[in-house]
């Protein structure tokens, strides 16, 4: 059976999706619903969201399945929520629990460093670590996306929820009964020490999230 | 750090007095707009200047935008005028034009057929003289053997074949895992 990864940004979803795709004999896509999808298949990279759905739905009917990673927020904003729910129906849905503020710190750090080093590469284990200032003006938008994503995930029949801390090679190999060797690993950055306005950002973030049901604790 | 920092795509003056600047910047794959006053003491203004957008560059960008806008307007006006003229000329003119194009198309079609016959003849002659068979199809297939996009298309095609659909999970899995078209064809071949 094919897995689908539904998650928020900066929760380790890329690593999990590598495993899901490998489990499906390499038949899958990373962030297919990005405007310029992360795929070497030109016709899909520049296809519209509607065309991407048509592609997935057609092959699902032919019993040909792809593992994909979805950040549902963008798809929902474009008005395709029910179509996404229909597409995901019948698949094993995987998602991830990560402290939303930690996810935000990772996102803020990537924004600060212009996404030049979005994942730690296993081959050289290098990751740029610099002191940074959190852009607090992006907190509201990020929280809104998390809330929308969690609301969507609550509508799904989740097959398994991984804790962010569980996303390592031994655990994932065990779960997928695989010997897959991923080429990225969690960044493992001590954002608290690197961020110059950590306390201020944390206070603002929790203020923004307050009142919402937090799926990720 | 201003919200547009590091993401500026363009900047233009909004008003004739050049007192307000419209900064266009990219965020989450969208073009956003941020208006700021021409105030050398304001941090956002300083930030914009620090990214190389001085008043001269902004004035040039504004002029370029106006020129493009004017050109677009002229095209629109010309299109409207043309449509009106066509209407005024009446259906007779359009009919004549259609007949003329149809005749031209037929004539060109005959020319293409004639040229094609000549080329096919020449191709045959060359092959006979050089004692060569037509291998272009296979050469192309070989060239594309490991091309990721073509390999992906092949897999989708193969997985839709009735013989593959009726085959077991292992066959489907091996086709999905194939790293070359020839490898995939060999798997399909076992099902014939």
Main structural class of chain B: mainly alpha
Order of helices and strands of chain B: EEEHHHHHHHH
Give the termini distance of chain B in whole angstroms: 66 Å
Unreliable residue stretches of chain A: 213-217
Oligomeric assembly: heterodimer
How large is the count of helical segments of chain A?
10
Secondary structure: helix percent of chain B: 55-70%
- In percent, how much strand structure appears in the residues of chain B? 5-15%
Tell me the helix content of chain A. Answer: 40-55%
Given the C-alpha coordinates, what overall shape of chain B results?
Answer: flat
Given the helix and strand composition of chain A, which structural class is it? alpha/beta
Characterize the largest beta sheet of chain A: strand count, sense, and whether it forms a barrel: 5 strands, parallel
Radius of gyration of chain B in whole Å, from Cα?
A: 31 Å
Amino-to-carboxy terminus distance of chain A: 29 Å
- Spatial strand arrangement across the major sheet of chain B: 1-2-3
Task: Trace the largest sheet of chain A across and list its strands.
Answer: 2-3-1-4-6
* pLDDT < 50 runs, ≥5 residues of chain B: none
Question: Can you walk me through this structure?
Answer:
The complex is a heterodimer of chains A (217) and B (192). Chain A has 217 residues and is of the alpha/beta class. Chain A has ten helices and seven strands. Chain B has 192 residues and is mainly alpha-helical. In chain B, 65% of the residues lie in helices and 11% in strands. Chain B is flat. In chain B, helix 5 runs parallel beside helix 8 (181-189) and helix 7 runs antiparallel to helix 8. Chain B is built from eight helices and three strands. The mean pLDDT of chain B is 88. The N and C termini of chain B lie far apart (66 Å). The chains are: A alpha/beta (217), B mainly alpha (192). The interface between A and B is medium-sized, with 17 and 15 residues.
SSE layout and pairing:
The complex is a heterodimer of chains A (217) and B (192).
Chain A: E1 3-6, H1 13-23, E2 28-29, H2 42-45, H3 49-61, E3 67-70, H4 72-77, H5 81-88, E4 92-97, H6 100-112, E5 120-121, H7 139-153, E6 158-163, H8 169-175, E7 184-185, H9 191-194, H10 198-209
Parallel strand pairs in A: 1-3, 1-4, 2-3, 4-6
Antiparallel strand pairs in A: 5-7
Chain B: E1 8-13, E2 20-27, E3 30-37, H1 43-50, H2 55-89, H3 91-130, H4 136-143, H5 148-159, H6 162-165, H7 169-177, H8 181-189
């Amino acid at each position: 059976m094919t897995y689908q990864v539904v998650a928020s940004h900066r929760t380790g979803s890329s690593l999990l999706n590598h495993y899901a795709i490998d489990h499906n004999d390499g038949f899958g896509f990373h962030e297919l619903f990005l405007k310029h999808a992360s795929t070497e298949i030109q016709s899909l990279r520049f296809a519209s969201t509607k065309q991407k759905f048509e592609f997935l739905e057609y092959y699902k009917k032919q019993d040909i399945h792809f593992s994909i990673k979805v950040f549902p927020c963008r798809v929902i904003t474009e008005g395709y929520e029910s179509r996404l729910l229909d597409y995901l129906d019948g698949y094993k849905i995987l998602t991830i629990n990560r402290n939303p503020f930690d996810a935000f710190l990772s996102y803020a750090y990537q924004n600060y460093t212009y996404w030049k080093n979005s994942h730690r590469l296993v081959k050289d284990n290098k990751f740029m670590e610099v002191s940074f200032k959190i852009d607090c003006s992006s907190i509201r938008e990020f929280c809104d996306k998390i809330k929308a994503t969690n609301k969507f995930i609550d509508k799904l029949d989740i097959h398994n929820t991984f804790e962010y801390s569980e996303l390592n090679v031994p655990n994932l190999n065990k779960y997928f009964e695989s010997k897959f060797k991923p080429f990225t690993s969690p960044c493992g950055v001590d954002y608290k020490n690197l961020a110059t306005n950590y306390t201020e950002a944390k206070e603002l973030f929790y203020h923004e999230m307050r009142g919402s049901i937090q799926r990720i604790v | 750090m201003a919200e547009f920092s590091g993401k500026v795509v363009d900047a233009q003056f909004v008003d004739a007095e050049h007192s307000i600047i419209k900064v266009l910047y990219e965020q989450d794959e969208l073009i956003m707009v941020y208006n700021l006053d021409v105030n050398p003491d304001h941090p956002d203004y300083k930030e914009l200047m620090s990214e190389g957008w001085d008043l001269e560059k902004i004035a040039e960008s504004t002029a370029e935008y106006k020129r493009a806008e004017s050109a677009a307007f002229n095209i629109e006006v010309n299109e409207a005028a043309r449509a009106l003229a066509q209407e005024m000329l009446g259906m007779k003119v359009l009919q004549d034009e259609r007949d003329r194009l149809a005749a031209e198309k037929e004539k060109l079609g005959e020319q293409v057929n004639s040229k094609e016959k000549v080329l096919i003849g020449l191709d045959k002659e060359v092959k006979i003289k050089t004692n060569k068979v037509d291998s272009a199809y296979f050469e192309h297939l070989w060239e594309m053997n490991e091309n990721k996009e073509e390999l992906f298309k092949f897999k989708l095609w193969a997985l839709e074949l009735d013989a593959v659909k009726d085959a077991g999970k292992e066959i489907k899995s091996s086709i999905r895992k194939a790293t070359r078209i020839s490898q995939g064809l060999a798997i399909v071949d076992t099902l014939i």
